[in-house]
Write a structure and sequence with these properties.
heterodimer; A: alpha/beta; D-Maltodextrin-Binding Protein, domain 2; 3 domains; 3-stranded parallel sheet; 16 helices; 14 strands; globular; B: alpha+beta; MetI-like fold; two-stranded antiparallel ribbon
């Protein structure tokens, strides 16, 4: 039970409690049955008062909550091809989805013990703040104000992105730079860093534009496709993903300009350092596995390696307490790699060469291969 | 209640202090009230404490910070350098714009359709019935989508804009009209308009008094139109044609210049008006049917034709039945305007959602929404109650 929802629940006794606790349930049922008596209502309210006060202390240990529940609750995008979208069997797949699965594998040894909560740009932060989700893995840009004002911690960067523009080259021949977009109508999702960068970029370049703002990604896509706007702006990775879902992807081009830094990463609530560490080190383990050449196929083989670093990472070092100090068991990295593969495999399968998106590794390559992915060592 | 006790007990003995029903009632009320205050106080305290403990910022200080985002339709000067509070004002004005214009069109349409449903003409009656049944039974969100996606978005792209008379254009980006640029001497036109309206009022009063005294009628409506249109036109000529028109011009992406009505506004405005008009039509029909048939017969008996009968006898009486439910419809229309968020019209809710997401201060933004919508609804109610009191049957 989250502190924030606790405050709300008193206002809305009819709403089913997000996490079910027995005292809470009975309070709301009493209220639902009708006003049995003012005395009972007040007692109920006071009861939930005491509950909320105690709950806010208890909410700290996310790991225990997740273990008790038996699955991880992960907030993902409502549907962005390659990053988070249900496939034809109704299973969630994608780059951000696999990070959730990796965390579940680290905790449970089973990458399938995740439930996904699709969130749009507006809902994502409240969902994490209120405790509806344990982890937000939804191409969310890490910014200072999100770290401070929202009460979040970003557990690293899993995709280095930048904002770009997409236009319909067929209806706008001759436009090959974002600097030619003065006077254009631009479709953008509301409440994103994208919306702010867009305003800054046009102001800095003394250009005019008409923002066409929707809150849901699907609505922005529909408006762009229907020709309501000349250009679509979001993170470049998003543009490539959205282009694939358009009726005729070949008509649309992503303009070369990158107008911002968009480090996308998983976020957790502040105040639970253990949970923060688990998510942070799951991401690091994915990158380190790629550095060490540990793959989904060879992980069992690698476990017998003589290389002390590989042995340490895979939990084969005698008497090591690295994993238990984190609150996980020794096999955690093995489970992560078995569950989803290393960072490179996750990338290529979902958004890289093995996917329709065909995004090049670029910045998102290992630091040893010309990218900027660099994970602190597991030791 | 105290008399009951004495009736049963016989002796009018005064009950013990705590058993006195009056005092007991008072104590209960004080206790309940105190508990309510305590609960509200606790909720606020608990919420702020928990927000603080989760390191989530709270308070309304963010309203003075730079917003950083642009809004498509602004009735007051606004840019990304403005503050959040300005963004909220822009959103509120957009809500008011669509609510007020929607109420006007819905009322006009509703009255026409409502009267049409009682028409003696079979075709008119059936058309009006179909209209009411169709729009009344579709959720307003779908009506908005219908106008936005099915009607306005199928219009041609800017390059193939439909040309309309008077230099206006229609395309998927909106309705483009010439804009008037008020040059020097334009105040004369405004003066002419004000004078025209004032003189029409005076003429109407004079005509009423004369009719009461002599029975002679005077064409008030025609005179008023002449005055209200004629005087500004006269002023326009006298002022040396001070107004010029700026026509929309085709440019790279779209038509620029002139005056643009965006498709988001247009579809929300039309959808809310058409939807609410179907309810108003039923209210108007009920109001008219609620006036006894004897009134109409009596009116015909004194020689009034159907038109004046409706205008002078039936409608004034029907209005007394119509106004209270009409108020509810006006409130509904205002509140339904928050569905704007679905098609990206920057109303109070859409702007608030962006602000909420940029600052993360959900509770504050929701509080602002609730206070503003409550204020709007209460203001509408107060006005309609005043109007109702004016229209009520004056008992003598």
């Amino acid at each position: 039970m989250s502190p924030l929802m606790g405050g709300f629940q008193v206002f809305l006794p009819e709403q089913p409690a997000a996490s079910t606790k027995s005292t809470k349930g009975s309070t709301s049922q009493k209220n639902r049955k009708g006003y049995v008596g003012m005395k009972k209502v007040i007692l109920g309210l006071l009861g939930s008062a005491a509950m909320v006060a105690s709950a806010s202390v208890a909410s700290a240990a996310t790991l225990d909550d997740v273990k008790a529940r038996g699955h991880l609750q992960c907030g993902v995008n409502t549907g962005l091809a390659g990053f988070a979208a249900p496939n034809d069997k109704g299973e969630w797949v994608g780059f951000d989805v696999d990070l959730c699965r990796a965390v579940a594998a680290a905790i449970f040894g089973d990458a399938t013990k995740v439930n996904f909560t699709p969130t749009n740009a507006t809902e994502r932060f409240t969902a994490l703040q209120s405790g509806e989700i344990d982890l937000l893995s939804r191409n969310t840009t890490w910014t200072l104000s999100r770290d401070t004002k929202l009460g979040f911690n970003f557990a690293g960067v899993n995709y280095y992105d930048g904002q770009g523009f997409m236009i319909n080259a067929k209806s706008l021949p001759g436009v090959n730079s974002a600097l030619q977009l003065s006077g254009a109508s631009v479709c953008v999702q509301g409440g994103t860093t994208t919306e702010l960068n867009l305003a800054d970029y046009f102001r800095a370049n003394n250009m005019e534009y008409n923002p066409v703002v929707f809150q849901a990604l699907e609505e922005v896509n529909a408006a762009y496709e229907s020709g309501r706007c000349d250009a679509y702006t979001t993170d470049q990775s998003g543009l490539y993903a959205i282009r694939l879902t358009l009726a005729s992807p070949d008509d649309h081009v992503v303009l070369p300009e990158i107008i911002s830094k968009e480090p996308l990463g998983p976020a957790v609530r502040q105040g639970d350092d253990q949970w923060f560490d688990i998510v942070k080190w799951t991401l690091n383990a994915l990158i380190i596995a790629e550095e060490l050449g540990i793959t989904q196929a060879n992980v069992d083989e690698m476990a017998n390696s003589d290389n002390p670093e590989i042995k340490r990472v895979l939990g084969k070092e005698e008497g090591s307490t690295l994993a238990t100090d984190l609150g996980l068991d020794n096999e955690w990295v093995v489970n992560i790699v078995k569950g989803v593969g290393n960072y490179g495999e996750v990338f290529e399968r979902n958004i890289g060469s093995g996917s329709p998106l065909k995004i090049a590794r670029g910045l998102n390559n290992l630091w040893t291969k010309g990218g900027i992915l660099y994970a602190p060592p597991i030791r | 209640m105290a008399s009951e006790d004495t009736a049963h007990g016989g002796a009018p003995a005064r009950a013990a202090f705590l058993n006195d029903p009056k005092i007991r009632g008072l104590i209960y009320q004080v206790v309940v009230f105190a508990a309510l205050v305590a609960v509200i106080y606790w909720i606020i305290g608990n919420t702020t404490e928990n927000l603080r403990r989760s390191n989530i910022s709270s308070g309304f200080a963010f309203l003075n910070a730079r917003s950083g985002f642009d809004i498509a339709q602004t009735l007051i000067p606004y840019s990304s350098n403005s503050r959040y509070i300005d963004a909220f004002v822009v959103g509120l004005l957009n809500t008011l714009l669509v609510a007020v214009s929607g109420i006007v069109l819905a009322s006009i349409l509703g009255f026409i359709v409502g009267i049409g449903r009682l028409s003696r003409n079979w075709l008119i009656r059936k058309i009006c019935t179909v209209y009411v049944e169709v729009f009344r039974n579709i959720p307003p969100l779908l009506v908005i989508f219908f106008w936005y996606f099915a009607v306005l978005q199928v219009l041609p792209p800017p390059r193939d804009s439909i040309e309309l008379p008077f230099g206006s254009y229609l395309n998927a980006r909106g309705f483009f009209l010439p804009r008037a640029i008020w040059g020097e001497g334009s105040w004369l036109i405004l003066l002419g308009l004000v004078l025209g309206i004032a003189m029409s009022f005076l003429a109407a009063r004079w005509a009423r008094t004369r009719q009461a005294a002599t029975g002679q009628q005077f064409p008030v409506a025609l005179t008023s139109i002449g005055l209200i249109v004629g005087l500004p036109v006269l002023a326009y000529i006298l002022g040396g044609f001070p107004v010029t028109l700026e026509f929309p011009q085709k440019s790279t992406f779209n038509l620029t210049g002139g005056w643009t009505i965006k498709p988001e506004f247009l579809s929300l405005f039309l959808a809310l008006s058409f939807y609410t008009a179907s309810f108003i039509a039923e209210i108007v029909r009920a109001g008219i049917l609620g006036v006894s048939k004897g009134q109409t017969e009596a009116s015909y008996a004194v020689g009034l034709r159907p038109g004046p009968t409706l205008r002078l006898v039936v409608i004034p009486q029907a209005l007394r039945i119509i106004i209270p439910p009409l108020t509810s419809q006006y409130l509904n229309l205002t509140k339904n305007s928050s569905l704007a968020v679905a098609i990206g019209y920057p109303d109070l809710v859409a702007v608030g959602q962006t602000a909420m997401n940029q600052t993360g201060q959900a509770i504050e933004v929701v509080a602002i929404w609730m206070v503003i919508y409550l204020g709007l609804s209460l203001a509408t109610s107060v006005f309609m109650n005043w109007f109702n009191a004016r229209m009520a049957l004056v008992e003598r």
